[in-house]
Amino acid sequence: MMSSSITDKTYKKLVLQVSLNGLSFVVIDLLSGHASHLKHLSFDHFQKSAKIEDLFLDVFRENEVLKNNYDEITIIHFNNLSTFVPTALFDEEFIGSYLQYNTKVFETDFFTFDELTKYEMNSVYIPYVNMNNFFIDQLGAFEYKHSSTILVSTLLDISKNNEERKMFVHMSASHFEIVVLQNQNLHLYNSFEYTTPEDFIYYILFTAEQLQLNPEYFKLELLGGIKEEDAYYQIAYKYIRNVSLFEVPNDNPSLSEEENREHFILLHS
Fold first, then answer.
1. 20 to 30 A from 168, CA-CA: which of 131, 158, 193, 268?
2. 3-state DSSP call for residue 75?
């Protein structure tokens, strides 16, 4: 539950990242900024017929920390149903039209957006309405955002005063995001579904070609759920000269570098 008065202050923030494949959560100390109780739960081993709300209910039963009081609660919707629109071209009355070119949309879909005021653009997306309804029952009031909002805005912040055009790839179980930046300017954001390393490198090289990025020169940094020994890292290393794991800021010394990299979005919400 979210704390409602000054006497109930806990100086703790709960962040949950939700998708159709699982749920991750972390508790953040608002005074130190450090994270604790980081946990990821995959739903891959559950029956496909199981309702997502029932899976979430099991998570709440088994993790007492989720029942504590918090000053802030944030839900992150992690899916590939999003796009970015410059503020100058954005009209809320036509919000559903922005996604129709890169994803299948229906009249019954609920559309919303996150404002990135600093960068004069909006992240338009389809949240999981059924999940939001579940969390209202379990947690009360909360704010919610799309994962792309956090990923892109954080990387844009980091790119300040860097005139080099750079590609970042964020890996997850079913899809990955490509972000191309140059000194706080977003050149490209896109999300791709994949099943093999060949899918992975094809989309990266195709994107590079479209942006006239030479694999001999541009820098590719990988973050999310990826390690140097993974086949996806190895195939990127084969075709792109300057590839490396993203060097994450050491904001959470209690977590390993791998955990900070894998849960980058969750930890920077």
1. 131
2. strand
